[in-house]
# Entry
Amino acid sequence: MRRTQHILRILRMKRIKGLYKGSTAERLLRLFILLALLSGIAAVLLQFLAVRRFGWEPTVYRERHEVDFNPRLSINTSNMPLEVFAHDGEKIIIEYTGETALLINEDSDFLRISREEDFKISLFSRDMLNYKMTVWLPRKAFREIKLSTVSADISAQELTAESFAASSRSGNVTLRDVRGIISVNTRFGDVELVFDEFSEPCAVETDAGNVSVLMPGSFGVRLDYFTDGGKFTSDFFGREFKNHKGVLYMVSGANPVHFTVRTNSGNLVFHKRIIYIE
# Structure
């Protein structure tokens, strides 16, 4: 037992001495990292004790707004999930739960929805798992819709716009029955597109995300695809393509709609969507 304790003491001394090895810059860097780590642990412990002892939590904003229809719309939620749906009303409805205030800027030609930028630690907020923004849009044709996040998912359904753009650095993008000229861009997030009809051009670009597309087999499509390290499979052709780029006509037609998709290391999947008519 004493021998074991002696060995442990020696090992501890060696670890401490290891901080002082190397050049002055290396020692200062190691010391800075150690202090930063200890400060982070202390901040988390203090917040945890505050919640346990005093019931204190960071401020949580719960907001609901109704604004007039605007044909041009931009929504940016940063690191918060974004869901956008269509509804039968005339107003744009916004429901929001988050740790910073919601910002709504509207003028005669553009409606911008975003969040107040502020860094806050809210590891122990009871509502943090419910942080998100949900927006309901009238079933009208918009001139322009832009949806963007940094590290959160985007989901949109049954929307119509002349120009529709969705972008995220590391979040996934899911669009279902969205109509218009569509542009989707991610850095690491996956992209899933489901069409009930396909009559306008679509462009998808991602560095490392997978791209999955479902569309009816009754529309003429010219597909320009590229993937550097992924696979391309499609039941339109019943096989897997090993070449990394090409042009395919999924259905013959006089004026096929252009679909462009590019990913550096993700897989591409194009499948037929079966629509049941009741």
Observations:
- The longest strand covers residues 141-149.
- Residues 2-54 form one domain.
- The chain has a mean pLDDT of 80.
- Helices lie at 2-18, 24-54.
